[in-house]
Design goal:
Shape: globular
Largest sheet: 9 strands, mixed
GO molecular function: acetate-CoA ligase activity; ATP binding; fatty acid ligase activity; fatty-acyl-CoA synthase activity
Mean pLDDT: 92
EC number: 6.2.1.1
Keywords: ATP-binding, Ligase, Nucleotide-binding
Radius of gyration: 23 Å
CATH topology of one domain: Rossmann fold
Enzyme class: ligase
Helix content: 25-40%
Number of helices: 16
Strand order of the largest sheet: 2-1-10-9-11-12-13-14-15
CATH architecture of one domain: 3-Layer(aba) Sandwich
Number of strands: 26
Family: Belongs to the ATP-dependent AMP-binding enzyme family.
Amino acid sequence: MKKPNLANYQKAYQTFSWEKAEKEFKEKFKAIKSNKVALYWENSNGDKKKYTFKEFFLLSNKFANVLRERGVKKGNRVFFFLPRIPAVYFGLLGTLKIGAVGGTLFPAFGTQALYDRLKNSGTEVLVTNRELYQRVKKIKKSLPKLKKILFADQLPKLLDQASEKLETVKTKPTDPALMLYTSATGNTPVCGIVIPHKALVQQYFTAKWILDLHKNDVYWCTADPGWVTGVVYGILAPWMLGVSQVVFEGRFSAEKWYSLLEKYKINVLYTAPTALRMLQIEEEAASKFDFSSLRHICSVGEALPPDSISWTQKIFALPVYDTWWQTETGAMMIANYRCLKIKPGSMGKPVPGIKAVIVNNKGKILPANKEGNLAFKPGWPSMMIDVWKNKKRYQSYFAHHWYLSGDRAYQDKDGYFWFIGRADDVIKTSGERVGPFEVESVLVSHPAITEACVIGKPDKLRGQIIKAFLVLKANKKGSEEFKEEIKAFVKKQLAGHAYPREIEFVASLPRNPSGKVVRRLLKAK
């Protein structure tokens, strides 16, 4: 392992420019067409497949031609609602090659979550499978712009018939490449974050610097491609660097995860603190396996507690390096680096080329150790260029010449940033962001519920859990059986992680004079 060297970071930070980085990226990056393995894929049934870079290059060309044959043009939206199967990976690459805008949907989404995203995006083409389509089928009539459905079991035949030759569409750096959804607060259940093509520059360099990916590495990003991490650092960035990666389609099992680390001789692991805590619960299983190939671990999705660093040191003989970024930022912004000393619990330091500060509500930069709003100077390559059909929401991120992240934090005298909490009410549970409005909308659609308010409650395993306060109709009484009914109801509509694990029945909700529910009183309770 490299020894911490502050001078390396300081030099890079002081001399770096995105203009030079873009030039280097254009000179070095070429589509990789070798017979080296790009993807090791495995599912919970024990099925396994390997794909080379050449095979993926040709499959993505063929998929692009399948889309073209169906009238897909530059700027059209193509969404993937699939489990972690290879079609998501070569399909998204093929989508980008013809200038279409790619989007992904978490396979656990229920009908309401799907409707919100497909309706807002105006998706023209959806790629799914027969099982997941049963959810889409219920809302299809309400999605007039959704003209084409491609099923995963149709793709082999369609790809066989398609040409492997493709003239890639020329795009401008500022043209939209990805539309990825994040939960919002207020009266908008979802936000379609639009990321431009030039984001590839920042995604490439952050994978190189922070994930420390080398060409001969085997890499595993455990994030689902339904989320931004699984797209940026689970599809695009590692393959731009020519790195082989592992994808596992299956439910979490500590023993299975430990076995995959050994089996594929994984060198770099990018995962979430929640996953590390779940591995920690079953750490006795780790003694059966050899992790000597593993040389670097990074985390993402939520604040990394200090005990996770000490635990990975104990089990893997390695620390874990935290990273901070958002769907809206398009790539890593603050991180811990192998050339810097880790301060357990800290977010780390800004990526070279990124100006990060702590500001007050008037945009004034605050001194060291003063809590405020985590903010950034706009203009980095991967910064979102739009919130789809919501200019007001997009503009709300910017004030006093800063991009406001919505996080509260402080910066210490050594330049390290420390996360305190969300400034808004978005709940982070098991590393996933869940908007209260989205959950509340489903809850109040239940015939026995008149009012609902959800908050994030601190939880040792998941970071936060969703807790719901419910006002029932007069003729309905709360019970433990009814709580389980409500949980199942929300799971069906949204996703397996987006349901209230705790439910409390109340006579009324606390409100301010304007009639808005005062969440802080419920949180204090």
